[in-house]
């Protein structure tokens, strides 16, 4: 790994991404076959949450345990983080106890500040800008189905949120074609558009027409219309996104056997129909499972459980 931390996917090289995915495949095999892989024996990870979580929390905690280490949960509201202790002091204190810090927060600047002051690796467990661990799990799941990523078309249908942004960066780095369908009122961050335009070999389109984006797609990804922290905008978001439902009519425009991915939690009947969700539930829950394996790989590579290349 070229970086000490995992804060956003644009910090990773394609080699870093494949190193994580390859190790995740190995760790998944080991886990499924009962092969011990206590690569972080005696190590500890503290996980800080300023937003809710089901998958992130349990996959990090179970993953650390399976690696022979231990994870601690620190809720924003229950700790000094929620009382306004400066993030640089939290970083310097927790670095004295633990071998790694994972944080789910609002602003990318918070995790960047945490990483600046921490002396141990910091992992972004999602914020408003990025969801790198989720997208690495998505790439792992897509590669399990198609064997290779390069040349596949990934379409995303929804607002220009953390998932849209990390999917764009991760998929383009793996030489996939990316088509985003986002309402004009909810575009992705300008950084992401700049990234997509930064390399002439990237194949990227942004449209407000979901039908155009999903045409001939190999994989369609979607996400909730109202992300955590955006609840006050629920009404406007519902109005802007009402035609952004991944249903069987939309799916029919993609390639036959097109894969569907959803980071979860899902609001069935909004961004995805119940019918499409249930027809693709195996792929969606493989994606959820792969959070465990991919994060174990990330922790091993960053926290010294395995010699990085
Ligand atoms: N996909 C995801 O991050 O799920 P949680 O919010 O449950 O952690
Ligand atoms: N975009 C969603 C992802 C949840 C995993 C959110 O930020 O709430």
Major beta sheet summary: 5 strands, parallel
Across the major sheet, the strand order is 7-6-5-8-9
Could you list the spans in which at least 5 consecutive residues all have pLDDT below 50? none
Number of beta strands: 9
Span between termini? 7 Å
Please provide the ordered H/E string of secondary-structure elements.
HEHEHEHEHEHEHEHEHHEHH
What structural class results from the helix and strand content?
Answer: alpha/beta
Envelope shape: globular
Q: Helix fraction?
A: 40-55%
Average pLDDT figure: 97
Number of helices: 12
Bound molecules: phosphoric acid mono(formamide)ester, norvaline
| Radius of gyration from the alpha-carbon trace, in angstroms | 19 Å
Strand coverage percent: 5-15%
Oligomer: single chain
């Amino acid at each position: 790994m070229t970086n000490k931390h995992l804060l956003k996917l644009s910090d990773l090289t394609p080699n870093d991404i494949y190193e994580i995915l390859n190790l995740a495949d190995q760790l998944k095999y080991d886990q499924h076959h009962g092969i011990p892989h206590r690569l972080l024996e005696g190590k500890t990870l503290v996980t800080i949450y300023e937003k809710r979580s089901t998958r992130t929390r349990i996959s990090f905690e179970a993953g650390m345990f399976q690696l022979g280490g231990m994870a601690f949960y620190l809720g924003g509201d229950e700790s000094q983080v929620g009382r306004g202790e400066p993030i640089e002091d939290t970083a310097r204190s927790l670095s004295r106890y633990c071998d790694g810090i994972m944080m789910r927060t609002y602003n990318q600047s918070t995790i960047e500040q945490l990483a600046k002051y921490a002396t141990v690796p910091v992992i972004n467990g999602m914020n408003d800008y990025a969801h790198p661990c989720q997208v690495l799990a998505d790439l792992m799941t897509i590669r399990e189905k198609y064997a290779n990523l390069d040349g596949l078309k990934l379409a995303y249908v929804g607002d220009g949120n953390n998932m849209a942004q990390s999917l764009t960066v991760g998929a383009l780095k793996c030489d996939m074609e990316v088509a985003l369908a986002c309402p004009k009122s909810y575009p992705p961050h300008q950084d992401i558009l700049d990234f997509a335009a930064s390399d002439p070999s990237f194949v990227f389109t942004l449209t407000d027409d979901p039908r155009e984006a999903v045409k001939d797609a190999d994989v369609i990804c979607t996400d909730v219309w109202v992300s955590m922290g955006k609840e006050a905008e629920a009404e406007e978001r519902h109005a802007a996104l009402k035609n952004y439902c991944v249903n069987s009519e939309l799916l029919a425009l993609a390639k036959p056997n097109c894969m569907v991915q959803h980071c979860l939690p899902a609001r069935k009947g909004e961004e995805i129909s119940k019918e499409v969700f249930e027809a693709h539930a195996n792929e969606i829950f493989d994606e959820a499972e792969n959070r465990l394996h991919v994060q174990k790989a990330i922790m091993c590579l960053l926290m010294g459980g395995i010699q990085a290349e």
